[in-house]
Sequence to fold (242 residues):
Amino acid sequence: MTVDEAGAVRGERRGQIADALRSLDERIAAACAAAGRARDDVTTIVITKTYPARDVDILAEIGVRDVGENRIDEAADKHAELADVAARLTWHQVGQVQTNKVAALARWVDVVHSVDRGRLIDSLDRAAATRGRPISALVQVSLDGDPRRGGAIATEVPRLADRIASSSHLRLAGVMAVAPLGSEPDRAFAALADVSQAVQARHPQATMISAGMSGDLEQAIAHGATHLRVGTAVLGSRRIRQ
Ligand SMILES: *Cc1c(COP(=O)(O)O)cnc(C)c1O
Fold:
């Protein structure tokens, strides 16, 4: 490819992403209006898993501030490739975290959405101490009570939130959930709102509710989501399932 051709490809991709972000913004604005919520209460995290660093670079250029990843090693590579651009973004980890990957995660992450067990809290706390900068943490809630896909059952969430809040180098930010497959997202997000209330009663600063993806963001907004995690609706369908 010549330099001109590469520039044209980038321009086309940039146009695609900008159009998708505009449509997404209209969807979010309509959902906020329908729910009687202020548009500014809802932040979009663009989930860039499986997409290359150049897409993240385009997102940053268009004005996106928050990006989310699922696989720790893939994210580390993108972060390294983007250097200065990466430093201007807030990086979220939304996929499950194995304890042996925590040190690698701490090199690039700002916010971990998928904290679901005590051992992971202790390990993240040590990694944040080592890097000398706190990590924001959300407790992931399993809404179908099947913790195999990640998340703690609702009754365990307050104890995990307390443990994060009493750690030295983590900041308790709130709660996160993925609506269970084949269930009513409305019911799931209503349950998440209840868990969030229970957590905020003990920790008023933990106001973040990370919920809603490309297919169910309207329901999430109706139930108080503050942070949407949107991939497909911005970048297109992923060829690799994750
Ligand atoms: C991939 C992913 C998303 C984004 O899903 P889309 O349907 O592509 O919007 C959100 N949350 C988590 C945890 C993910 O892994």
